[in-house]
Amino acid sequence: MRPHVSGSSPKKKSNTITKHCRVHFLSSDSNSNGGFNPYNTNTIHSEAVVEEEGSDTTNLLDKVEVFDLSGKGVIISDLWNDRKTLVAFARHFGCVLCRKRADYLASVKDKLDAAGVTLILVGPGSVDQAKVFYEQTKFKGEVYADPSYSSYKAFSFVSGISTTFTPKAGLKIIQLYMEGYRQDWGLSFEKDTRTKGGWQQGGVIVAGPGKSNISYIHKNKEAGDDPDIEDILKACCS
Length: 238
Description:
This protein has one domain: 3-Layer(aba) Sandwich (Glutaredoxin), CATH 3.40.30. Helix content is 32%, strand content 21%. The chain has helices at 55-61, 96-106, 109-114, 127-137, 150-154, 161-164, 167-179, 185-188, 191-197, 229-237, and strands at residues 16-19, 23-26, 43-46, 50-53, 65-67, 73-75, 84-89, 117-123, 142-145, 203-207, 214-219. A hairpin with a 6-residue loop joins strand 10 (203-207) and strand 11 (214-219). It comes from Papaver somniferum (Opium poppy). It holds the Pfam family AhpC-TSA_2.
């Protein structure tokens, strides 16, 4: 029998995106502007397989263009159409927490390579910002810029002051500074980041092969909300 979320009835199989392991889904309540409400903290935490309607997300992703470090544009879902990928979505390219996440994921790159999984990081910002991030971090995977933030909107990643300035995030930043990580304040205070991405949260997905084949998704509920690395490895490499 297929596992289901505790306290709910099993759902019939439908045309969905299937999402695995420690998934944090926030409710689809809308704000007054018709977008995602970043202050809603209703979440589902499940070790079971979770299904939710994904056709709208798939359609939106087919229209999202991201750019590699050379400035070449590509539809984001084409990144995993012909291969299996682990894709991390950064808060912004100057974020100290995202630099830690980049190292966190790169630390298992040998296991990803052995399983034929490509490591990718997407950040909301410009190609120039992406280049600076890549040069500073020496990230071992592919890096793409999403200047329009469209992929974040497609996944309904949360955004807002209340998701950025939290006690847990503050303690984690102190810990990272003690470890030697640093925020790039120049990138952080560039106009585009300040006006559009300063409060943005990201997430992690495992996707492909196939544009609609998203087998795992973790949506950060606050800054620095890293998924368990073992859950990621189970989703992408087992």
